[in-house]
Amino acid sequence: MSISGWRRREDLEGGKQIRVWLSEDDETELYVENLTYRDEGYAVYAYDVDADEWNTIAETDSRADAVEKATEWAGS
Hints:
It is a single chain. About 15% of the residues lie in helices and about 40% in strands. It has one helix and five strands. β3 and β4 form a beta hairpin.
């Protein structure tokens, strides 16, 4: 799935990431993570590389909903 202005990162770390995108300027990383291993659903996070800050965008019980929320956020 491509998002304008973002590229997919293929070297996923730790195995809990479903999708990771990097902004073309390398300033933001967008994560969709599977948290079901700790009896939670899925989460969408944005990481600001320069500020070293994580921001929660969404939490949901649906994997598809998490991916949709990530792509909506990235497209805005």
